[in-house]
């Protein structure tokens, strides 16, 4: 694992731990998935794909009861903390994932 990426992940994860919206904290599992997506390009599940792409229908049909309770703080975290290039539309999310996949592939080809 690249040390710089690990440090970026840890910094973002610390921000997530202290993040609040209307007094609600983002759950650890949700924060982990969003941080891994933002730093490593790890594809998230349907609920977070819905949030990241601004697709309310996908968000709602994919949300479990826990995620429904924290929808507002999740959206706030994405919009206030994550890089703006990694969310907002399906195109942006796909490009973000492709960018990270290409970087990983290039890294694996290095001698």
Describe the structure.
This protein has 111 residues and is mainly alpha-helical. It has one domain. The chain is 71% helix and 4% strand. The protein has a two-stranded antiparallel ribbon. The longest helix has 20 residues, at 90-109. The two termini are 16 Å apart.
Write the layout of secondary structure elements.
Layout: H1 3-18, E1 20-21, E2 24-25, H2 28-40, H3 46-52, H4 56-62, H5 65-69, H6 71-81, H7 90-109
Largest sheet: 2 strands, antiparallel
Distance between the termini: 16 Å
Question: What shape does the CA trace take?
Answer: globular
**What ranges have pLDDT less than 50 throughout 5 or more consecutive residues?**
none
Structural class: mainly alpha
Strand content: under 5%
Task: Name the average pLDDT.
Answer: 93
Strand order of the largest sheet: 1-2
SSE string: HEEHHHHHH
